[in-house]
Amino acid sequence: MTMTGKTHVGLGTAIGIALSNRLPGVMNIMSIAILVIASLLPDVDHPKSIFNKYILPVKSNRVKFIVYGSLGIALLIFNFKYERIPELNVAGAILIIVAFSSHRTGLTHSISGVIIFAFVANYIGNIYNDKNLVYYFILGYASHIIGDMFTNRGVPLFYPLRNKNIKFPISFRVGSKKGNVIEEIIIICSILYIAYNIPLLLRIKLGV
Ligand SMILES: [Zn+2]
Fold first, then answer.
1. HSE on the CB side for 86, CA within 13 Å?
2. What is the C-alpha to C-alpha distance for residues 159 and 165, in angstroms, rounded to an integer?
3. How many angstroms separate the alpha carbon of residue 170 from the centre of ligand 1?
4. CA distance 141 to 128
5. Which member of 21, 49, 123, 172 has the lowest number of beta carbons within 10 Å of its beta carbon?
6. CB 44 within 8 A of CB 56
7. d(Cα 76, Cα 207) in Å, to the nearest integer?
8. Which phi and psi angles does 163 have, rounded to 5°?
9. Distance of CA 207 from the midpoint of ligand 1 (Å)
């Protein structure tokens, strides 16, 4: 089970800003964009998540399966015929995995998912000559998984080695009264923290 997209973005961005001075390079507007995307990405396996709102014509598991499955197969065939770039094979495989994975037994909420997606993020970072992109990607992505470990359903952290959902001893039920209050507190704290750090971020971006 997952928290709302807003909560994940707030948490991911705040954690990224908090840890940015421990990462190599400087934070820029691209780092923030990567934090936002990465903190939402694990829920790509959910037909009603933010990404799928734009990608899927109909928000059902069946349509999700068909769209991601055919995109993945098309990419693999295209790459085999014309490009033969190994990373494109990984991207194709990810699309197929997303087609098959669900929130109960899903690769996207596991350590294996972090590693596979980080591999692609690193490749994209190299294309754009931004070697730090992958660090922000991992931070955003991992913050999502850790956040979901505070929900009562937990996440299949060790998938596909183990199918058991893992959660922290203290957890809350998504959508419950208590859960909504907790998510609102996380969002408010994140916004305050990000707002407080905006002067710092602007200075870094302007290079003053
Ligand atoms: Zn999630």
1. 3
2. 9
3. 17
4. 20
5. 21
6. no
7. 42
8. -95, -5
9. 35
3-state secondary structure 76-129: HHHHHHHHCCHHHHHHHHHHHHHHHCCCCCCCCCCHHHHHHHHHHHHHHHHHCC
3-class SS shares of the chain: helix, strand, coil, % to 5: 70, 0, 30
Ligand 1 centroid vs 80 CA: distance in angstroms? 32
| Mean per-residue pLDDT pooled into runs of 10, the chain (208 residues) | 85 91 83 92 88 86 92 95 87 88 78 91 87 92 94 90 90 88 91 86 62
Place of tokens 């770039």: 85
Dist. CA 1 → ligand 1 center (Å): 6
Distance 44 CA to ligand 1 centre (A): 8
Task: Supply 171's token pair.
Answer: 């957890």
What is the spatial distance between Cα 128 and Cα 28, in angstroms, rounded to a whole number?
14
Tokens 């055919």 identify what position? 70
> What is this structure's pTM?
0.86
> CB under 8 Å to 99, separation ≥6 — which residues?
64, 65, 66, 67, 68, 69, 72
Give the C-alpha separation, 188 to 82, whole Å.
49
Going from the Cα of 82 to the center of ligand 1, the distance in angstroms, rounded, reads 35
